[in-house]
Write a structure and sequence with these properties.
six-stranded parallel beta sheet; globular; alpha/beta; 373 residues; 18 strands; five-stranded parallel beta sheet; 11 helices
Amino acid sequence: MVGKIVLARAGSGKTYYIANDFEEGKSILLLTFTNQNVENIKEELRVRFQGNIPQNINIVTYSSFVYSWLLRPVEKCLTFKNVKSSGVDINTQPVGNSYPPKPFYVKDTELGHYINNKNNRYYSTRMAKLILKQKKTIWKIIENRLEMLVDTIYVDEFQDFKGADYELLMLLMKSKKFDVVSVGDFYQHSVAMSSERRGIPFKKGKSYLSEEEFLGVLPKSIKIDEQSLIYSRRVPQKICDFIQKKLSIDIDSINEIEGSLSIITNVEEVVGLLNDETCVKLVYMNSRKMLFKPVINWSYSKGDTYSRVLVVLTDKLDKFIQEDFNFSGLSQKSINELYVALTRSNDELYICKKDVFNKANELLIKLERKIDS
């Protein structure tokens, strides 16, 4: 059996891949993080199977998988006695460890560290940790049970796995009892906020690993596919070339649209784009405070596709548009955040510096005040 990681690029068709990679008749389990992505995968499967998803294919969220497929069946075998949970708490963030300890923090040697005693539900962020804390015999039980249920597990967005969730994923991928195929884009890790404070697997100490370094620390038994999803269906070649030149990220396009990329330095042109509701504005943060629409934070745009996009650079990235720009001074996290913003458009991409945007935004505010008065 094999564990495989498929390295994808933005807009390369990850959902299509995991819905079409396997042979018909196999017992397949497809995992993703959100209910929306579950629906996206189901839609791809309906296309493949003419509207009816076969019963041998299951699509669930990661938290549902850990609870229903891994943890709940072995509750009676856990190190804690008389465990009988009522589900998963995905809304409550448990009190974290700190020094000095915060009030109401429960040590990980107690059941209350993993289960919210107010509703008897597992904290979603600590289920993997609980499994990892068990004796190896418990994992063997889990592994043997999965072997009877599935031939292949597909994992969507592997780059969003951190800490204990990542360690659990590695246990699954190293198993010799079933295949596990994980698909994701390394350059989209650490973009969304996470409650996981440990840097595993994308940091060593305080420094972020490059893609090459990350691949070097993976278990040797895991196969790496760097070719299947390198071509973006979304991002035009002009934008891909720009990203390759500026950020040294290997990304190519199979988008038939030629596309365009423009660096906007004129304040009036930026004002026009801010007023244009067909153009999505991507700002680093504080999108809710902006007067113009539509506007989204870089990190919240992850997974989205737009036709026309204006990316507003941060002060730290004001030299990005210069010919002699050198990305070596950026952390991998900063590169990833910018990469996500730059890869949202399937046609027209506009980029402006923060100071040009600030002047344009000030003009809009003044005009708004005149209208109100």
